[in-house]
Amino acid sequence: MPVVTVLKDDAESTKVRVEDKYINFDNRTGFWSPWSLSDFVVGVSNVDNISPVSDYMRADVENTPVFQKRQILRFNPNIFTYSKLKFKFHIIHQIQPGENGGTSYVWNSVVKDVESQTVLLERAVKLVTIDRTTRKAVELPKWFRQKYHDPSPKMERLNDLPDSFKTIFNPPDFPSDCYQWRTTVRYSDLDFNMHTHQSVYTKFCLDAITSAALKGKLRYFNRDICFYPLESVDITFIGESFAEDELLVNILQDMCDQTIIRCLIENNRKPVTYLVLKLGLTTLSVSKL
Protein backbone atom coordinates (compact mmCIF):
# COMPACT_ATOMS: atom_id res chain seq x y z
CA MET A 1 0.00 0.00 0.00
CA PRO A 2 1.25 3.50 -0.75
CA VAL A 3 2.07 5.79 2.15
CA VAL A 4 -0.55 8.57 2.18
CA THR A 5 -0.07 11.73 4.23
CA VAL A 6 -3.03 14.11 4.51
CA LEU A 7 -1.77 17.68 4.12
CA LYS A 8 -5.15 19.42 3.89
CA ASP A 9 -8.81 18.40 4.05
CA ASP A 10 -11.53 21.05 4.14
CA ALA A 11 -14.42 22.42 2.08
CA GLU A 12 -12.09 24.07 -0.43
CA SER A 13 -9.78 21.16 -1.26
CA THR A 14 -8.09 17.99 -0.11
CA LYS A 15 -4.35 17.51 -0.59
CA VAL A 16 -2.35 14.36 0.07
CA ARG A 17 1.22 13.27 -0.46
CA VAL A 18 1.56 9.75 -1.84
CA GLU A 19 4.81 7.80 -2.04
CA ASP A 20 5.77 4.19 -2.56
CA LYS A 21 7.48 1.80 -4.90
CA TYR A 22 5.99 1.29 -8.34
CA ILE A 23 3.63 -1.73 -8.08
CA ASN A 24 0.69 -2.97 -10.17
CA PHE A 25 0.20 0.12 -12.32
CA ASP A 26 2.04 -0.99 -15.44
CA ASN A 27 1.01 -2.24 -18.86
CA ARG A 28 2.98 -3.77 -21.77
CA THR A 29 5.36 -0.80 -21.75
CA GLY A 30 6.43 -1.64 -18.20
CA PHE A 31 5.31 1.77 -16.95
CA TRP A 32 2.07 3.44 -15.87
CA SER A 33 -0.98 2.78 -18.02
CA PRO A 34 -3.70 5.35 -18.84
CA TRP A 35 -6.50 3.18 -17.48
CA SER A 36 -4.79 2.67 -14.12
CA LEU A 37 -4.00 6.32 -13.38
CA SER A 38 -7.57 7.39 -12.64
CA ASP A 39 -8.03 4.35 -10.39
CA PHE A 40 -4.82 5.22 -8.58
CA VAL A 41 -6.02 8.76 -7.88
CA VAL A 42 -9.34 7.48 -6.52
CA GLY A 43 -7.78 4.60 -4.60
CA VAL A 44 -5.24 6.58 -2.59
CA SER A 45 -7.86 9.21 -1.74
CA ASN A 46 -9.95 6.51 -0.08
CA VAL A 47 -7.20 5.42 2.29
CA ASP A 48 -8.39 5.90 5.88
CA ASN A 49 -11.70 7.40 4.65
CA ILE A 50 -10.20 10.68 3.48
CA SER A 51 -12.04 10.54 0.14
CA PRO A 52 -13.23 14.04 -0.80
CA VAL A 53 -16.34 12.72 -2.52
CA SER A 54 -17.63 9.52 -1.02
CA ASP A 55 -17.61 7.38 2.08
CA TYR A 56 -18.45 4.09 0.40
CA MET A 57 -19.56 2.34 3.58
CA ARG A 58 -21.91 5.19 4.46
CA ALA A 59 -23.25 5.37 0.89
CA ASP A 60 -23.93 1.65 1.00
CA VAL A 61 -25.88 1.96 4.26
CA GLU A 62 -27.82 4.91 2.85
CA ASN A 63 -28.52 2.93 -0.34
CA THR A 64 -27.18 5.83 -2.45
CA PRO A 65 -24.23 4.74 -4.59
CA VAL A 66 -22.44 7.18 -6.86
CA PHE A 67 -22.17 6.72 -10.64
CA GLN A 68 -19.95 8.49 -13.13
CA LYS A 69 -21.60 10.38 -15.96
CA ARG A 70 -18.52 11.84 -17.63
CA GLN A 71 -14.77 11.91 -17.09
CA ILE A 72 -12.05 14.00 -18.71
CA LEU A 73 -8.38 13.12 -18.25
CA ARG A 74 -5.42 15.07 -19.58
CA PHE A 75 -1.97 13.50 -19.28
CA ASN A 76 1.53 14.90 -19.23
CA PRO A 77 3.36 12.24 -21.34
CA ASN A 78 6.15 12.23 -18.75
CA ILE A 79 3.91 10.27 -16.41
CA PHE A 80 4.05 7.26 -18.75
CA THR A 81 7.81 6.99 -18.23
CA TYR A 82 7.84 7.85 -14.53
CA SER A 83 10.38 6.02 -12.39
CA LYS A 84 9.59 2.42 -11.59
CA LEU A 85 11.71 2.47 -8.45
CA LYS A 86 9.96 5.16 -6.44
CA PHE A 87 7.25 7.74 -6.90
CA LYS A 88 6.27 10.73 -4.80
CA PHE A 89 3.14 12.64 -5.80
CA HIS A 90 0.97 15.44 -4.52
CA ILE A 91 -2.68 14.72 -5.31
CA ILE A 92 -5.05 17.67 -4.87
CA HIS A 93 -8.83 17.34 -5.05
CA GLN A 94 -11.54 19.97 -5.32
CA ILE A 95 -15.32 19.50 -5.25
CA GLN A 96 -17.83 21.60 -7.20
CA PRO A 97 -21.33 20.69 -5.94
CA GLY A 98 -24.34 21.04 -8.21
CA GLU A 99 -26.57 24.08 -7.87
CA ASN A 100 -28.32 24.17 -4.46
CA GLY A 101 -26.74 20.81 -3.61
CA GLY A 102 -28.49 19.06 -6.51
CA THR A 103 -27.98 15.43 -7.47
CA SER A 104 -24.55 15.74 -9.09
CA TYR A 105 -21.14 17.24 -8.51
CA VAL A 106 -17.82 17.62 -10.32
CA TRP A 107 -14.69 16.15 -8.75
CA ASN A 108 -11.51 17.86 -9.99
CA SER A 109 -8.06 16.40 -9.35
CA VAL A 110 -4.46 17.25 -10.14
CA VAL A 111 -1.41 15.01 -9.70
CA LYS A 112 1.96 16.74 -9.30
CA ASP A 113 5.51 15.54 -8.88
CA VAL A 114 6.48 16.50 -5.34
CA GLU A 115 10.01 17.57 -6.20
CA SER A 116 9.40 19.62 -9.36
CA GLN A 117 5.69 20.42 -8.86
CA THR A 118 5.21 19.45 -12.52
CA VAL A 119 1.56 18.69 -13.30
CA LEU A 120 1.40 15.06 -14.47
CA LEU A 121 -2.35 14.50 -14.65
CA GLU A 122 -5.51 16.63 -14.66
CA ARG A 123 -8.80 14.88 -14.04
CA ALA A 124 -12.42 16.02 -13.86
CA VAL A 125 -15.37 13.72 -13.23
CA LYS A 126 -19.10 14.39 -13.09
CA LEU A 127 -20.81 12.06 -10.64
CA VAL A 128 -24.47 11.48 -9.80
CA THR A 129 -25.96 10.06 -6.61
CA ILE A 130 -28.75 7.54 -7.26
CA ASP A 131 -31.13 5.41 -5.26
CA ARG A 132 -30.00 1.81 -5.64
CA THR A 133 -33.59 0.50 -5.74
CA THR A 134 -35.22 2.95 -8.16
CA ARG A 135 -32.00 3.72 -10.13
CA LYS A 136 -33.07 7.37 -10.18
CA ALA A 137 -30.98 10.39 -9.20
CA VAL A 138 -31.45 11.64 -5.64
CA GLU A 139 -30.23 14.69 -3.73
CA LEU A 140 -26.67 14.60 -2.49
CA PRO A 141 -26.43 13.25 1.08
CA LYS A 142 -26.72 15.80 3.89
CA TRP A 143 -23.25 15.00 5.27
CA PHE A 144 -21.79 15.66 1.83
CA ARG A 145 -23.61 18.98 1.39
CA GLN A 146 -22.51 20.12 4.83
CA LYS A 147 -18.84 19.60 4.03
CA TYR A 148 -18.83 20.69 0.39
CA HIS A 149 -21.08 23.71 0.38
CA ASP A 150 -21.33 25.85 -2.75
CA PRO A 151 -17.78 27.10 -3.35
CA SER A 152 -16.89 30.75 -3.27
CA PRO A 153 -16.75 32.30 -6.76
CA LYS A 154 -13.31 33.60 -5.78
CA MET A 155 -11.96 30.06 -5.30
CA GLU A 156 -9.16 29.42 -7.80
CA ARG A 157 -9.95 26.68 -10.30
CA LEU A 158 -7.85 23.62 -9.56
CA ASN A 159 -7.18 22.45 -13.12
CA ASP A 160 -7.38 23.84 -16.62
CA LEU A 161 -9.80 21.31 -18.08
CA PRO A 162 -12.77 22.55 -20.14
CA ASP A 163 -15.88 23.34 -18.15
CA SER A 164 -18.12 21.26 -20.42
CA PHE A 165 -20.05 19.10 -18.00
CA LYS A 166 -23.23 21.18 -18.21
CA THR A 167 -23.78 20.30 -21.87
CA ILE A 168 -25.36 17.10 -23.18
CA PHE A 169 -22.68 15.23 -25.08
CA ASN A 170 -24.09 12.92 -27.76
CA PRO A 171 -21.88 10.65 -29.88
CA PRO A 172 -21.80 11.23 -33.64
CA ASP A 173 -23.07 8.72 -36.19
CA PHE A 174 -20.47 6.04 -36.90
CA PRO A 175 -20.42 4.81 -40.51
CA SER A 176 -21.35 1.19 -41.12
CA ASP A 177 -17.90 0.45 -42.58
CA CYS A 178 -15.93 1.79 -39.57
CA TYR A 179 -13.47 -0.57 -37.90
CA GLN A 180 -15.16 -2.74 -35.26
CA TRP A 181 -13.73 -4.91 -32.50
CA ARG A 182 -15.55 -7.28 -30.16
CA THR A 183 -14.78 -8.30 -26.61
CA THR A 184 -16.52 -9.99 -23.69
CA VAL A 185 -16.73 -8.51 -20.19
CA ARG A 186 -15.02 -10.71 -17.60
CA TYR A 187 -15.98 -10.99 -13.94
CA SER A 188 -12.58 -9.47 -13.13
CA ASP A 189 -13.69 -6.37 -15.09
CA LEU A 190 -16.51 -5.64 -12.62
CA ASP A 191 -16.54 -3.05 -9.85
CA PHE A 192 -18.08 -3.12 -6.38
CA ASN A 193 -21.56 -2.62 -7.87
CA MET A 194 -21.09 -5.66 -10.16
CA HIS A 195 -21.06 -3.74 -13.44
CA THR A 196 -18.11 -3.01 -15.71
CA HIS A 197 -15.57 -0.78 -13.97
CA GLN A 198 -15.21 2.66 -15.53
CA SER A 199 -11.49 2.25 -16.24
CA VAL A 200 -12.05 -0.96 -18.19
CA TYR A 201 -13.78 0.92 -21.02
CA THR A 202 -10.59 2.90 -21.68
CA LYS A 203 -8.63 -0.35 -21.72
CA PHE A 204 -11.11 -1.92 -24.16
CA CYS A 205 -10.80 1.06 -26.51
CA LEU A 206 -7.01 1.07 -26.44
CA ASP A 207 -7.04 -2.67 -27.24
CA ALA A 208 -9.47 -2.04 -30.09
CA ILE A 209 -7.35 0.82 -31.45
CA THR A 210 -4.25 -1.40 -31.21
CA SER A 211 -6.05 -4.02 -33.31
CA ALA A 212 -6.97 -1.37 -35.90
CA ALA A 213 -3.42 0.02 -35.98
CA LEU A 214 -1.73 -3.36 -36.41
CA LYS A 215 -4.09 -4.19 -39.27
CA GLY A 216 -3.29 -0.94 -41.07
CA LYS A 217 -6.72 0.63 -40.54
CA LEU A 218 -5.40 3.92 -39.09
CA ARG A 219 -3.23 6.68 -40.53
CA TYR A 220 0.02 7.47 -38.69
CA PHE A 221 -0.50 4.72 -36.07
CA ASN A 222 0.89 1.29 -36.98
CA ARG A 223 2.17 -0.15 -33.68
CA ASP A 224 0.82 -1.31 -30.36
CA ILE A 225 -1.12 1.80 -29.32
CA CYS A 226 0.06 1.70 -25.68
CA PHE A 227 3.46 2.88 -26.92
CA TYR A 228 1.93 6.13 -28.14
CA PRO A 229 1.33 8.60 -25.29
CA LEU A 230 -2.35 9.23 -24.65
CA GLU A 231 -2.65 13.00 -24.30
CA SER A 232 -6.30 13.08 -23.22
CA VAL A 233 -9.46 11.00 -23.00
CA ASP A 234 -13.03 12.25 -22.64
CA ILE A 235 -15.48 9.52 -21.57
CA THR A 236 -19.26 9.81 -21.53
CA PHE A 237 -21.01 7.00 -19.65
CA ILE A 238 -24.35 6.25 -21.28
CA GLY A 239 -25.38 2.77 -20.12
CA GLU A 240 -24.13 -0.23 -18.17
CA SER A 241 -22.66 -3.63 -18.98
CA PHE A 242 -22.13 -6.75 -16.91
CA ALA A 243 -20.08 -9.96 -16.83
CA GLU A 244 -20.33 -12.09 -19.99
CA ASP A 245 -21.87 -9.26 -22.03
CA GLU A 246 -20.39 -9.07 -25.53
CA LEU A 247 -19.40 -5.52 -26.39
CA LEU A 248 -18.79 -4.00 -29.81
CA VAL A 249 -16.23 -1.17 -30.08
CA ASN A 250 -16.70 1.10 -33.11
CA ILE A 251 -13.65 3.18 -34.10
CA LEU A 252 -13.61 6.42 -36.08
CA GLN A 253 -10.43 8.41 -36.80
CA ASP A 254 -11.07 12.15 -37.07
CA MET A 255 -10.65 13.42 -40.63
CA CYS A 256 -9.41 16.90 -39.61
CA ASP A 257 -7.14 15.90 -36.73
CA GLN A 258 -6.08 12.29 -37.15
CA THR A 259 -4.52 12.15 -33.69
CA ILE A 260 -8.11 12.13 -32.40
CA ILE A 261 -9.85 8.75 -32.35
CA ARG A 262 -13.49 8.32 -31.36
CA CYS A 263 -14.83 5.08 -29.91
CA LEU A 264 -18.44 4.06 -29.35
CA ILE A 265 -18.95 0.95 -27.22
CA GLU A 266 -22.26 -0.85 -27.73
CA ASN A 267 -23.95 -3.67 -25.85
CA ASN A 268 -26.51 -5.45 -28.01
CA ARG A 269 -26.72 -2.35 -30.27
CA LYS A 270 -27.31 -0.05 -27.29
CA PRO A 271 -24.62 2.58 -26.58
CA VAL A 272 -22.73 2.07 -23.33
CA THR A 273 -19.87 4.57 -23.47
CA TYR A 274 -18.49 7.13 -25.91
CA LEU A 275 -14.80 8.02 -25.75
CA VAL A 276 -12.75 10.69 -27.51
CA LEU A 277 -9.01 9.96 -27.30
CA LYS A 278 -6.16 12.20 -28.42
CA LEU A 279 -2.85 10.45 -29.02
CA GLY A 280 0.69 11.71 -29.47
CA LEU A 281 2.55 10.69 -32.61
CA THR A 282 5.95 10.07 -30.98
CA THR A 283 6.22 6.59 -29.50
CA LEU A 284 7.42 6.16 -25.94
CA SER A 285 9.61 3.17 -26.86
CA VAL A 286 9.85 0.45 -29.50
CA SER A 287 7.00 -2.06 -29.43
CA LYS A 288 7.76 -5.75 -29.70
CA LEU A 289 4.63 -6.27 -31.79
From TrEMBL:
This is Acyl-ACP thioesterase. It comes from Mytilus edulis (Blue mussel). The lineage of its organism: Eukaryota, Metazoa, Spiralia, Lophotrochozoa, Mollusca.
